[in-house]
What we know:
Structural class: mainly alpha
Number of helices: 5
Order of helices and strands: HHHEHEEH
Radius of gyration: 21 Å
Largest sheet: 3 strands, antiparallel
Distance between the termini: 27 Å
Low-confidence stretches: none
Amino acid sequence: MKKIFPAPLLSVALFLIWLLLNQSVSPGNIVLALILALLLPVMFRGLRPRYVRVRNVGAILRLSWAVMVDTTASNVAVLRFLAWPSYRRAESGFVKIPLDLRDPNGLAVLAMIVCLTPGTSWAELSLDRSVLMLHVLEVKDAQEVIDHVKASYERPLMEIFE
């Protein structure tokens, strides 16, 4: 049954959203909504990430705390940078971070964390997913950035996903 309907909840959501957006429950609209709701998840099955099985709930809590603390600190740093540009601590730059994390879901979460943190931007991921290039607003010590990303984000993500 899972092979025929790869995402039953998504199908139900697509069906309801189609009807709500069109504000019509005419027979033709219901048939079209049903066709879309059944075919779209099948057509895009290859784009769905692997099933996620969380291995360590405590790691989720530690990671959430680290992200909250780092995001707050980064907000303050960016505010300081914008308010007093003459007090810039270091130049911006790219940092290449070797990755041990290979799980696509873990990499997606890492991308979201990095993009949510002010002053950092995911620049590139190598084709073999072994090196992340990160742009950082102020880079005093590249090794310090590498160590922080690996300890604060990568290690907990590996505990969660791998």
